[in-house]
Amino acid sequence: MKIIADENIPFAREAFGCLGEVTLAKGRAITHDMVREADALFVRSVTKVNAALLDGTSVKFVATATIGVDHIDLGYLSERGIGFAAAPGSNANSVAEYVVAALLVLAHRGGFRLEGKTIGVVGVGNVGRRVVEKCRALGMHVLQNDPPLQRQTGDPRFLPLSALLEADILTFHVPLTKEGPDATHHMISADLLSRFNVGTILINTSRGAVADTAALVEAADSGRLGGLVLDVFEREPNIPPALVEKADLATPHIAGYSYDGKVAGTMMVYRAACEFFGRPVQWDAAAAMPPPQHPRLNPLADIHPSQPSLSPADEDILRQLVLTLYNIEADDAQLRKMLDLPAEQRGAYFDSLRKTYPVRREFHNTRVETAGLPDSLRAKIAGLGFRV
Predict the structure, then answer these.
(1) Is 211 in a helix, a strand, or coil?
(2) pLDDT tops 50 at residue 310
(3) What distance in Å separates the CA atoms of residue 351 and residue 178, rounded to the nearest whole number?
(4) How deeply is 298 buried, as exposed, middle or buried, from its count of CB atoms within 10 A (0-12, 13-18, 19+)?
(5) 207 belongs to the catalytic site
(6) pLDDT tens profile 74-131
(7) Out of 44, 108, 130, 207, which one is annotated catalytic?
């Protein structure tokens, strides 16, 4: 069996090699000729899988090791009888941890507390649900919007989007869709932004085209936004420098790039391929994972706040704890170096940041010593996913 796989899929050779001969390639460089005689194709979000790529090939199975599928022509695969698998939920916790890190950094920079603030979560699927849980653990008041879930369940907690516009913070976790009653393409529009309260913080970690770039730049220029966090951009990897300049935190589409999440994605599509081809599961992701860099942390002994803490000090300790495991400001600083490059080099630089992204482990790999901490802080640490 011949297999083509994106080289950015962790353990691609080890996992898919149990099924056949694996050729690794850059995701954006996977071509029709390359997959002509392949039996299986494993991609991430940068590879467009459609008729142009697959017509006349021997590909029988396609998998994307990502939660999003907007880069896959599912109708075409169905018509051709080509098997398909994705990795829904694999990096959901990673994205939720990214949002937590962003919130704690913005609160520290702005001199405000997250506890008591209202956050609106737009899209309450695998990612949004975890964001809701972690924001509640921080003591935030959470409003939820998800029209498909509201229709399916009738649950009154799912509010119309207009009801979320009074929130202090809005975070978007929707798939990218261009048609139907719940189309999300450019849902963050000039009209929507004009209805935000002055000072609203906006976070987008879903897909770049969920937001209208020109409208975002205009809103940032107007001073209406109280903060802007962007992990995704239109026209990646050739992203608009103006948005990087305007954002308080800008990162190269890596919110879901925890090592745990990426390896979970590999395992999910590997198992799906084994089932499709009737092969036994031989590779185990758990055995392949490296030990965490910080298996234990003591907030009182290991973490030393560099600024006078807010009162009480729980959010300052939480920020230091989270940044020890995931320094979102370092990712922001790396992306901003793009602004110093010639325009023709920026796209390659964006891709290089993703390809060479360092190992980032999720909070559950770290046990936090909570002796001497107040019960309220201990509950927040556990609620964010750390072991206590």
Answers:
(1) strand
(2) no
(3) 25
(4) middle
(5) yes
(6) 999 999 999 999 999 999 999 999 999 999 999 999 999 999 999 999 999 999 999 9
(7) 207
What does the pLDDT read at residue 304?
55
Phi, psi of 119 (to 5 degrees): -120, 135
Average pLDDT value for residue range 327-351: 97
- Calculate the CA 173 to chain-centre distance: 9
Per DSSP (E only), the strands in the chain are 2-6, 21-25, 40-43, 61-64, 83-85, 118-122, 141-145, 169-172, 200-204, 225-230, 249-250, 296-297, 367-368
Given the residues 44, 113, 130, 236, the one annotated as active site = 236
The token pair at 339 is: 């602004």
As a whole number, mean pLDDT of residues 363-376 equals 94
Is 249 a residue whose pLDDT tops 70? yes
d(CA 183, CA 175): 9
Token code pair at residue 92? 């959901």
Whether the per-residue pLDDT at 312 is higher than 70: the answer is no
**Reported pTM:** 0.91
Alpha helices, DSSP H only, in 27-176?
Answer: 32-35, 51-54, 74-80, 92-110, 126-137, 147-153
- pLDDT surpasses 60 at 373: yes
Show the CA angle centred on residue 180, arms to residues 176 and 184, nearest 5°: 30
Cα distance between residue 12 and residue 335, in whole Å: 26
Identify which of 204, 263, 246 has the alpha carbon closest to the alpha carbon of residue 335.
Answer: 246
- For residue 137, the number of C-alpha atoms closer than 13 Å in the C-beta half-sphere is 22
Among 44, 173, 253, 354, the active-site one is 253
Domains identified in the chain and CATH numbers: 2-86+258-288 (3.40.50.720), 92-250 (3.40.50.720), 296-383 (3.30.1370.170)
Distance CA 50, CA 55 (A): 8
Interval 364-368 mean pLDDT: 97
pLDDT of residue 169: 98
